[in-house]
Amino acid sequence: MSERRKSLELLNSNRRFALFLDRDGVINRRVVGGYVVRPSEFEFLPGVLEAFSIFSKLFYPIIIVTNQQGISKGKMTEEQLTEIHSYMKEEILKAGGEIHAIYHCPHLRSSGSTCRKPRPGMALRARRDFPELNFKHSVMVGDMISDMVFGHNLKMITVLIGNEEFARKYPKLIDYRFNSLIEFSNFLSATIMNHQSEI
Ligand SMILES: [Mg+2]
Q1: CA of 168 to the centre of ligand 1 (A)
Q2: What DSSP character marks residue 192?
Q3: Could you give all domains of the chain from N- to C-terminal order, each with its CATH number?
Q4: CA within 20 to 30 Å of 45's CA: 3, 25, 85, 118, which one?
């Protein structure tokens, strides 16, 4: 029996959904083979700031979950990451959006750390900080299979950004796919927010 795809139509229910987002490749351009180590290297992808202003009307809380093993590799410090995240939050705030929490996992892929996606550690930390969080009423957005496994295992609605090949290869893990965050937010404005205004 095939599992029924989770639908974003659920956002039309009275319940407020939470939004979990990966960072690199979703919010900012990925540095291929390297790391963003200072705010000047943090480049928002087109339309991202506008997308956040739409998200803030629909979701609460809005949470970033990001693997940052560059810290354990000595490529950047915790302080540098904090600086990058302050910059990211400020720019989003200026554009009318909001981020309520950011969790990062500094450990190496090889460490087997429970905070490193696809493992659920960062989501569990979020639930401690936001006791009302219900993962079944959450959406996970990311550009990697590890993001999709993370969301899927927690029974979230999963949204892949980019990579059509992943979407073909792992249809069970991916509920929706869009080319960009702005395409996702435009879909929500068109389908969910229009519907809400009719009620
Ligand atoms: Mg990513």
Answers
A1: 18
A2: I
A3: 19-198 (3.40.50.1000)
A4: 118
